[in-house]
Recover the amino acids of this structure.
């Protein structure tokens, strides 16, 4: 499933005034141009239902878990027919590196206290 942004980028602030060598131009103080409004609950539910339907058609599922050691959210994409792991973010290697760094920091903290 491919999810992409199809909207056009809108500048947050537009420059005003003529171009001159007198000094810098000042950004206009218009109210937050380019800020998208929050979707309604029904729009959000519709989008989630649409994504879930596409995932079911592709025989894939997303699994959200929390890594116990690092308290990091882990997202796994699995094939629903075979149960095989297709992709994971962060990867097992990244989680292992995170655990190692935490252990090193804990060891350094103990040395500093001693």
């Amino acid at each position: 499933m491919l999810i992409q942004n199809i909207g056009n980028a809108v500048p947050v602030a537009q420059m005003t005034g003529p171009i001159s060598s007198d000094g810098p131009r000042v950004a206009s103080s218009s109210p937050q141009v380019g800020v998208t409004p929050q979707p309604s609950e029904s729009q959000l539910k519709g989008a989630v239902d649409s994504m879930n339907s596409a995932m079911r058609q592709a025989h894939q599922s997303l699994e959200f878990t929390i890594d116990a050691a690092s308290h990091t959210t882990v997202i796994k994409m699995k094939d629903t027919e075979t149960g095989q792991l297709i992709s994971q973010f962060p990867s097992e290697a990244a989680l292992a590196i995170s655990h190692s760094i935490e252990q090193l920091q804990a060891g350094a903290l103990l040395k500093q206290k001693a």
Notes: The mean pLDDT is 74.
